[in-house]
Amino acid sequence: MLGNKSRDFWAEVRKMSGKSAGTLTTVDGVFEPDKIAELFASKYQTLYSSVAYSTSDMEKWPHLGHMIN
Predict the structure, then answer these.
(1) Three-class secondary structure of residue 61 per DSSP
(2) Is the CB of residue 1 less than 8 Å from the CB of residue 12?
């Protein structure tokens, strides 16, 4: 599947399991949609801030560009 971008990961999962995934109602014990969004934003900000970024560092790894697109 990694080499074949035209295949959809979740479609493949549904084929194997025979049913579609339901919607989560709680995340880390939080069940209100706005609170889940706040929790996600907080976790994303922590993760995003934990990795230093410098343009010169990124220029050292030009071969990674194809993985992002």
Answers:
(1) coil
(2) yes
Q: Which secondary-structure segment (H or E) carries 14?
A: helix 9-17
Q: Which residues make Cβ contacts (< 8 Å) with residue 27, sequence separation at least 6?
A: 36, 39, 40
pLDDT of residue 2: 58
20 in Cβ contact with 11 (< 8 Å): no
The pLDDT tens digits for 8-50 are 888 887 777 766 567 778 889 999 989 999 999 999 999 888 8
Three-class secondary structure of residue 27 per DSSP: strand
